[in-house]
Design goal:
Layout (H helix, E strand, L loop, with lengths): L15 H15 L6 E2 L11 H13 L16 H12 L11 E4 L2 H7 L10 E5 L3 H10 L5 E2 L2 E2 L3 E4 L17 E5 L11 H14 L2 E5 L21 H4 E6 H5 L7 E4 L5 E3 L5 E3 H12 L5 H8 L4 H28 L3 E3 L5 E5 L4 H12 L1 E2 L1 E2 L10 E5 L4 H15 L1
Parallel strand pairs: 1-15, 3-6, 3-7, 7-8, 8-9
Antiparallel strand pairs: 2-10, 4-5, 9-10, 11-12, 13-14, 14-17, 16-17
The protein binds D-malate (MLT).
Length: 407
């Protein structure tokens, strides 16, 4: 008899965003006449930057001729893209990252979910609350947690991110081995200063722990005092892996391209205490289980770093940040406290009632979809997340509807 991986049975019924999509579809079926504005999942709405489209077309044409056709590419990604990333995203900021420390992939969701395979099942894992559910669910699937009780999985160390600590968690009170951090943060839109991030690096160095730093929203940073990469800080190369994505920075959610940086100095240990290179382990996993992102997509991603591409991506993000300002103003006028939206595409709003209740009220009374904060963890209860990824017209319409329904 084949037995299942019973750790899957500990998971909540469905993935948060699938659950929301199902609820919205049910509402739409019941009310086909209602026009719904989606400000839930952080999915981009603007088309790809023209520089990326041109490079994409050109690469597709190359695939049409036997002279320029490409079959399997390197699993780690083409050097043209890895070199552009190393130069523009890191070296230009004084962060030492070499091209061969960058692994191109089809998404930060996959990478942040898959990375935990490298670590022991008894690794002590620290996860923020609220949190992007992928970090949590993939550790549950792997068997690193106990049962779900009172809104939390047993066996994990939760890092509360609340109004009291400015949505930046404090260092854990008990020893941990693996630490997930995401800044600019999903879902709260909060940011971390260099000094705050340095305390985590120092902690990881002292405890031989590892930080998994999700910087998927780095391109939204407008406050230049904030770190774009963890490698801008001292000692991070030894204790941090960083995840980046073209999804939100260049509109690639449907095109799929991301990357993970695993510095060659980054180590984890066997039971004898011998250090092993995480770069070598991730390279082994990546080349065994992944066959690379398609050539045209990597060419489109490379175009992000051209002068034209940089200007177009900046304009794309400025457009979403202008939406975020409109949302923040609307929440101010209605008297809802909020954070985020200044260096991130998410606005984290205190809903003054149960998150799912507010989700239902917004949907029913305003035809607007949000993400209930409780879906991101216990500390998200009493909050909702509004995403700025939408057209200006839709955001304006959504804010008018919310103002009318909730004033
Ligand atoms: C979100 O809405 O939190 C993100 O879109 C999810 C993701 O990037 O996978």
């Amino acid at each position: 008899m084949l037995h299942i991986n019973e750790h899957y049975l500990k998971l909540q019924a469905s993935y948060l965003f699938s659950d929301i999509a199902r609820r919205v579809a049910a509402f739409q079926e019941k009310h086909p006449e209602r026009e719904i504005i989606k400000m839930g999942i952080g999915d981009v709405t603007n088309p790809l930057p023209p520089a990326c489209i041109q490079a994409f077309h050109q690469a597709v044409d190359e695939m049409a001729s036997s002279e320029s056709f490409r079959g399997y590419g390197p699993e780690q990604g083409y050097s043209f893209l890895r070199e552009a990333i190393a130069k523009h995203d890191f070296q230009s900021r004084g962060a030492k990252v070499d091209a061969d420390e960058i692994f191109i992939s089809d998404g930060a969701k996959c990478d942040t979910g898959n990375i935990q395979e490298l670590f022991a099942l008894d690794a002590r894992v620290a996860i923020p609350d609220p949190v992007y559910p992928v970090y949590l669910d993939t550790n549950v699937m792997a068997g690193r947690t106990g049962a779900f009780q009172d809104g939390r999985y047993q066996g994990l160390v939760y890092l509360d991110s609340t109004a009291e600590n400015g949505y930046v968690p404090s260092l854990p009170q008990e020893p941990v081995d693996l630490i997930y951090l995401c800044f600019p943060n999903n879902p709260t839109g909060s940011t971390i200063t260099k000094a705050q991030l340095q305390t985590w690096i120092d902690y990881a160095r002292e405890h031989k722990a590892l930080i998994l730093f999700d910087a998927a929203y780095e391109a939204f940073i407008r406050d230049e005092s904030l770190p774009h990469s963890i490698y801008e800080l001292d000692g991070a190369r030894e204790v941090a892996i960083e995840f980046r994505s073209f999804s939100k920075s260049a509109g690639f959610t449907g095109t799929r391209c991301a990357y993970t940086v695993v510095p060659k100095d980054c180590m984890a240990y066997d039971r004898e205490g011998k250090a092993h290179s995480l770069h070598a382990l991730w390279n082994r996993r990546h080349s065994t289980k992944f066959n690379g992102v398609s050539y045209p997509v990597q060419r489109a991603a490379e175009a992000v770093y051209s002068e034209q591409g940089k200007a177009e991506c900046r304009a794309l993000i400025d457009d979403y940040l202008a939406n975020a300002r409109l949302i923040a103003e609307a929440m101010d006028q209605l008297g809802y406290a909020h954070v985020g939206g200044k260096n991130a595409p998410y606005i984290w709003v205190q809903s003054k009632r149960d998150s799912w209740e507010f989700f239902d009220a917004l949907l029913e009374q305003a035809g607007v979809v949000c993400t209930p904060g409780a879906g991101f963890g216990k500390c998200g209860q009493g909050y909702i997340r509004l995403s700025a990824f939408n057209s200006r017209a839709n955001v304006e319409k959504a804010m008018e509807r919310i103002a009318t329904a909730f004033k």
